[in-house]
Structures are given as structure tokens and as C-alpha cells.
Design brief:
Blueprint (H helix, E strand, L loop, with lengths): L11 H26 L3 H31 L11 H29 L9 E2 L3 E2 L9 H36 L3 H4 L12
Helix pairs in contact: 1-2, 2-3, 3-4
Length: 191
């Protein structure tokens, strides 16, 4: 079965990348906040490994998604979209991708800086090499701070993304949200 985006819909693989990535990122953001806010420091180490493993999965998924998106055309915006809406959508998506890349790479770099190596791998069986050294506590603190700081603008942009989807569903009623829900949706007023 050939899978490609159309002028009016995202294909099944694009939708899978979107929803699987969204679910994993939601888990990571909630778990990261929970680890840093609720858990005592000694207990956190037990949770870092699986947090990092999911982060590696997000990075792999993000790379596949970006390659797929680069290879396939995107559905056209609805014909009635205003210029500022198109600019806001493009800027929001670019911001989301940049923050996802920044979060995954700062997390990957951070994983290599622990004094005790983390038992983390991609999908539980693919070893991921460290890109940093454990001999630098200043780097660890800096990366940990950046990773935590980047989570806030990512969370804010995700919230705006979700609100925008519901704006399209309830106010604009242009079918934009339905594009990411099912292959059979038909938008009103698309090019």
C-alpha cells in the first residue's frame, strides 16, 4: 500500500508519527516534571534510565518523521486561511520541531554526564553511545538546567498547538484538525 500525503489529508504514517510522538512527549514532560518536583534526589536515578530510553525513542521517531515530512508534500492550508494564520502555523511548527530537537539532544548529552552510567538504550536493546563525558559535573549541571528550561517553551507551544487545533475544529470549522484524525476526512474550503 502506497502511503503519501494528499492535498487535503495527512497519510497514515504521518498521523502515526504525530500521535505516537505526541504521546511519548507528553509522558516525558509529565515524568520529567514529576522526577524533578516530587521525587527525592536519590530515588530519581532509578527513573532516569527509562526516561532516557523513551527520549531516545522520541529522537529516533523525530528523525524518521522529519525525513518523511521532507520526502512528502504537506496538505495545503484551507483556502480561507488568513495570512497571519499561515505564518503562525508555520512558525509554530518550526518552533515545535526546533524545541523537540533541542530537548532530545540536551537529554542525550545529559545522559552521558552522570557519574554512574545509565542503563538506558533505544527500545531496550539498541545501545546508544554517549555524546558527552561523565567527568564534567559543571557540564552535567548546565545540561540539566537547559533541558529543564527548554521543557517550558515546548509545553507552552504544545498547548498553543492543541488550542489551535480546537480553534480550527470549533470556530473555523475548516477540517484542519480532522486531517490528523483519519484518512477519510474531508475539509471544507481547501485548495
Amino acid at each position: 500500500m502506497k502511503s503519501e500525503n494528499t492535498q487535503t489529508n495527512w497519510d497514515a504514517l504521518s498521523r502515526l508519527f504525530h500521535w505516537l510522538g505526541a504521546a511519548l512527549i507528553a509522558v516525558l514532560l509529565a515524568h520529567g516534571w514529576w522526577m524533578k518536583t516530587i521525587l527525592d534526589r536519590p530515588i530519581r536515578l532509578d527513573h532516569y534510565s527509562w526516561h532516557v530510553s523513551i527520549g531516545y525513542a522520541v529522537l529516533a521517531l523525530l528523525i524518521m518523521r522529519l525525513l518523511w515530512r521532507w520526502r512528502n508534500a504537506r496538505p495545503a492550508p484551507p483556502a480561507q486561511s488568513l495570512r497571519w494564520e499561515r505564518w503562525a502555523a508555520a512558525g509554530g511548527h518550526i518552533g515545535l520541531y526546533l524545541l523537540m530537537v533541542a530537548m532530545t539532544f540536551t537529554g542525550w548529552a545529559l545522559a552521558g554526564t552522570f557519574r554512574q552510567p545509565l542503563d538506558a538504550s533505544l527500545l531496550g536493546f539498541i545501545d546508544v553511545p554517549a555524546i558527552t563525558s561523565p567527568a564534567n559535573p559543571e557540564l552535567h549541571e548546565s545540561l540539566e538546567e537547559w533541558h529543564a528550561l527548554l521543557a517550558w517553551p515546548l509545553t507552552i507551544l504544545i498547548a498553543i498547538h492543541i488550542l489551535s487545533a480546537f480553534y480550527h475544529l470549533w470556530v473555523k470549522k475548516d477540517g484542519v484538525m480532522q486531517r490528523m484524525l483519519s484518512a477519510g476526512s474531508r475539509e471544507q474550503g481547501t485548495v
